[in-house]
Amino acid sequence: MIEVVNLCKSFDGNQVLKNISATFEPGKTNLIIGQSGSGKTVLIKSIVGLHTIDQGEVRYDDRIFSKMSTDQKKEVRQEIGMLFQGSALFDYMTVQENIKFPLDIFSKMSQAEKLERVNFCLHRVNLEKVNGFYPSEISGGMQKRVAIARAIALNPRYLICDEPNSGLDPQTAILIDELIQEITQEYNITTIINTHDMNSVMSIGEKIIFIYKGQKFWEGTKDEIFDTDNETLNNFVFASELFKKIKKAHL
User: Fold this and answer.
1) CA-to-CA distance for 19 and 5, rounded, in angstroms?
2) Could you tell me if 195 and 163 are in contact, meaning their C-beta atoms sit under 8 angstroms apart?
3) For the chain, which end, N or C, has fewer CB atoms within 10 Å of the first or last residue's CB respectively?
């Protein structure tokens, strides 16, 4: 479980996050949604310690991450898998080398054990026989699956995903959503997904946090989102004609 309590963050006197409190539960896909500039990315970066918060706390289970020393934070980060927007694979490394990279840095496995883990992770994301390929030689959807394989290489307790469907076609995006949800449930991972994709909200939004102008404006599930009277949320989620029709059909 990850918790943020009364979290505040400012840049040059501009308060970007205002007293945000939220609980992100293990075994569920926890989504953070909101308009561009609402503070979603700042919240994600604050949770993983890339931004130093001004006030409040970030907790990983019973550990107060925001009050830890640098060395203590490094230990917690080894339990965190990161899936970056655009995959962020190393172009000069093969698929196998990309997935093995965190194992080389943080694990004491033998080379044989590392290779076994790499192949297991590739199998888990439904990729086979791509070990020797470079990222430029595989599709965008395959790159994203390789990035997921790398993110789970160290068997993380926490998985942080920043716009995992960015740049993908709708069909591939659905496959990535389903894969993240399957892995989350299978390994009881605390997964947080920062997304603009309303298809993701409707399909895997087991818990949704809506950020508006740096504040938590709403939270609930993909089912509860249809019944909310929060006008700001409705205008954001049901902005397109397609989703307006979906809500009308639901009602």
Assistant:
1) 7
2) yes
3) C
Q: Is the pLDDT of residue 240 over 80?
A: no
Nearest Cα to Cα of residue 93 among 138, 147, 139, 133:
133
What are φ and ψ of residue 141, in 5° steps? -65, -40
- Reported as a single tens digit per residue, the pLDDT across 176-220 is 899 999 999 999 999 999 998 888 888 898 999 999 999 999 999
What's the predicted TM-score (pTM) here? 0.89
Give the three-class secondary structure for 125. coil
Tokens 């809506």, residue located: 210
CB atoms within 10 A of CB 245: 11
Q: What is the residue type of 119?
A: N
Distance in angstroms (rounded) separating the CA atoms of residues 215 and 177: 26
Across the chain, the runs of DSSP E, i.e. the strands, are 2-11, 14-24, 29-33, 55-60, 63-64, 80-83, 158-162, 190-194, 207-212, 215-220
| Residue at 61: amino acid letter | D
Separation of alpha carbons 142 and 158, rounded Å: 22
Q: Which two tokens stand for residue 114?
A: 């590392």
